[in-house]
Amino acid sequence: MLDTGLNVVEQGILIVGILVMAATSIIGVFARNMGHSLSFVDELAQLLVVIVTFVGVGHGVRNARHIRVSALHDMLPDKGQKILLTFVSFFSCALLALLAYYSIEYIQNLQKSGRVMPSMQLPLWIPYLIVPVGLIVGSAQFFLAGVRNIISKGAWLSWHNRDEYEDELAAEAGISTEEQAYYESESAPKEAGGKEKSNG
């Protein structure tokens, strides 16, 4: 329930943040063309970039939408893929936790320095609070993905999403599940026959 609620909140923040960021950028362009300088618009856009980026960290991991390099993954058997995903999940968990620790130190230094945003006069450490929050949420989601791979059968990209890379490629190519199963059943005897000939 908590995870579902957090997912909805993150979606809302991302949608609103991107829309407002686009609107402020357009307003800034029109203002400059009319000879006016709205410095607070640029500051607001920069602030929204930070918010969207680090809210998106946890959201991306939870929904298995983070960038993946699958070259090594695709060469491994099913068990090897599961082991690799488990290792990557726990390693990413530790890395994001370390970055969260350093980001907290950075925010503490910002608070001590008393730096503020020039136009909005907002203490700089306040908007940057989203950085450790996003990193901690992302770290927790990677931890859950690692645990999921340990306690459940199959390979998992996150707590809710199985590793279905081939199914995703088939969907993008417009191949249905039935067609994919048919092609796999047709190719299996051919591969078996090829192995028998090579052994003979």
The gyration radius over C-alpha positions equals 23 Å
Structural class: mainly alpha
Individual helix count: 7
Q: How confident overall, as mean pLDDT?
A: 81
Low-confidence stretches: none
What letter string, H or E per element, gives the SSE order? HHHHHHH
Structural account:
With 200 residues, this protein is an all-alpha fold. The chain is 75% helix and 0% strand. It contains 7 helices and no strands. α4 runs antiparallel to α5. The longest helix has 36 residues. The protein is elongated and about 65 Å long. The N and C termini lie far apart (59 Å). The relative contact order is 0.10. The mean pLDDT is 81.
Secondary-structure map with pairings?
Elements: H1 2-33, H2 39-62, H3 71-75, H4 78-113, H5 130-151, H6 165-172, H7 177-199
Helix pairs in contact: 1-2, 2-5, 4-5
Nutshell version of this structure?
This protein is mostly helical and 200 residues long. It has helices at residues 2-33, 39-62, 71-75, 78-113, 130-151, 165-172, 177-199.
List keywords for this structure.
elongated; mainly alpha; 200 residues; 7 helices; 75% helix; single chain; 0% strand
